[in-house]
Write a structure and sequence with these properties.
Shape: globular
Radius of gyration: 17 Å
Structural class: alpha/beta
Number of strands: 6
Largest sheet: 6 strands, parallel
Strand order of the largest sheet: 2-1-3-4-5-6
Mean pLDDT: 97
Strand content: 5-15%
Number of helices: 12
Distance between the termini: 12 Å
Low-confidence stretches: none
């Protein structure tokens, strides 16, 4: 088997470090979406469909069965893949299944990124300054200093461009329309990671409803927030391992 981890915005694959350490497996691969710790290729429009196609192409290169795990927008890319081509994976896990519920409303930051001029200003604020300035912002948000520094080093104009393009392509009702295919994700075993203190990804009700439609098991990470994989990597690893052990 191969475990494939995909992170989101405005992150790099460094966010997975604590979880990978706890898993203690040698079959883990971290994929960085273009613009988010990896170069943004010429001509890559960075829409959510472009990221779906990018991830499908990456998965096609693996010979071993894949247990696919996504966080934040990485979790969105995972859902878009398993709604479109579930045969590419053995199983999937995502902490943002609720984004595809018809009642999901984008969080405040996303709505600013989706607004012309205001989005550009917010990107400049969040991704501007020195590496040290940016790292300090993420440490304040609760990210360990080494991971915050790694993220900060990758943040700049390319990531800003990717953020704006991605969020604007996914302005509602785009994701609600994509979510009409949620039932197709049930073709492979799925896991919805429900971190109860994550305020970005919809209510518990929305997340459970979307998971049910996708045929997914829900694992509650009580009192953990958006970055559960750093906040309590042992609990995250245990939840994923329990899920993988149920797959024949």
């Amino acid at each position: 088997m191969t475990i494939v981890l995909v992170h989101g915005n405005p992150e790099t694959d460094a966010i997975w470090g604590p979880l990978v350490d706890v898993l203690q497996r040698d079959d883990v691969v971290r994929l960085s979406p273009p613009g988010f710790g990896a170069p943004l290729p010429d001509g890559f429009a960075a829409t959510y469909f472009d990221y779906r196609d990018w991830l499908e192409e990456q998965l096609e290169a693996f010979d071993e069965p894949i247990d696919l795990v996504g966080h934040d927008w990485g979790g969105g890319h995972v859902m878009n893949v398993v709604m479109h081509r579930p045969e590419l994976v053995r199983s999937w896990a995502s902490d943002v299944v609720g984004l595809f519920d018809p009642d999901y409303v984008w969080h405040d930051l996303a709505q600013v990124w989706q607004t012309p001029d205001e989005g550009e200003q917010l990107v400049d604020t969040l991704l501007g300054g020195t590496i040290e300035d940016r790292a300090e912002r993420w440490v304040t948000a609760g990210i360990p200093v080494d991971i915050a520094t790694s993220m900060a080093a990758a943040q700049g104009p390319e990531m800003g461009q990717a953020i704006l393009s991605l969020y604007r392509s996914a302005r509602q009702p785009a994701l609600a329309e994509a979510g009409r295919a949620l039932e197709d994700a049930a073709a492979r075993p799925g896991l919805s990671l429900l971190a109860t203190d994550d305020t970005y990804v919809g209510s518990d009700e929305i997340r459970r409803r979307a998971a049910d439609r996708a045929g997914a098991r829900t694992e509650v990470l009580d009192q953990l927030g958006h970055w559960w994989m750093m906040q309590d990597p042992a609990r995250g690893a245990a939840a994923l391992t329990r899920f993988w052990e149920t797959i024949g």
